[in-house]
Amino acid sequence: MSNVLSVSGLSKTYDSGFQALKNIDLEIEKGELFALLGPNGAGKTTLIGIICGIVNPTTGTVIVDGHDIISDYRAARSKIGLVPQELSTDAFETVWATVSFSRGLFGKKPDPAHLERVLRDLSLWEKRNSKIITLSGGMKRRVLIAKALSHEPEILFLDEPTAGVDVELRRDMWRLISSLRETGVTVILTTHYIEEAEEMADRVGVINHGEIVLVEEKKELMRKLGRKQLRLCLQHPLDAVPESLASYELELSADGSYLTYTYETAQNRKGITSLLHDLTEAGIRFSDIETRESTLEEIFVSLVHEAA
């Protein structure tokens, strides 16, 4: 795939001296869903703000589908739709008016059919003539998404889009995103709901203290950094782990009825075979085996902790 977004050497230092971003390099492929993860204050929103032309960079370049965000601002910005964190809307405008106005800002000709599709997809059609001030917080969030899609962008930024919203909106939004991706729209997501990134993302980037810690395909990231646990239910409780099994670093449950073996998913599985053999040699019998694999959230927490 070709890159639709290229960020090179991007830094941002505010007048106070605070450096929000430090030499960011990032390539986003056309049509992918890229999840950008990081704790509060890591630089996610600043990075998105620069790409979308809201914040000025200190150094570096950003190219959006071949257009520089500084020298070719209008063309670059027309490619982008942004759903911000803040619920900032035209309170006394109707839903239809504000979405139509957003489309016009990008020089797009009126297209009532497109706007109707967007509003219907977001369950807003029945509210099209309502003033935004009368809508619930969830409905206002839907309006922000509709505004971002009004001019048919090729790249959609979602900055914490489901924070504090109801389950129905979350479901509607992900259904809409799936349909957008089928048409080739690139989606870049920041979220605290890491299970969403785990389910939807093609690649994951982790940012911390203004620096990109890691960018990796989700499946490869979980393969390389994920951990698995083997939990053995013992037929007879143990008081302690035998010395002969010390090399496995087994964890014995408080009541002595379970042993837990933790290993890297990328490691050779021969370790499990050896463990089971050595358990038998030590006279330890078990009645059941359970396995679990680390989630993307656990991997994210460990990466941020290492980078702190």
Automatic annotation (TrEMBL):
InterPro entries: AAA+_ATPase (IPR003593), ABC_transporter-like_ATP-bd (IPR003439), ABC_transporter-like_CS (IPR017871), ABC_transporter_ATP-binding (IPR050763), P-loop_NTPase (IPR027417). One of its GO terms (molecular function) is ATP binding. Pfam families: ABC_tran. Keywords: ATP-binding, Nucleotide-binding, Transport. Residues 5-234 form the ABC transporter domain. Involved in beta-(1-->2)glucan export. Transmembrane domains (TMD) form a pore in the inner membrane and the ATP-binding domain (NBD) is responsible for energy generation. Belongs to the ABC transporter superfamily. PANTHER family: ABC TRANSPORTER ATP-BINDING PROTEIN (PTHR42711). This is ABC-2 type transport system ATP-binding protein. It comes from Rhodopseudomonas julia.
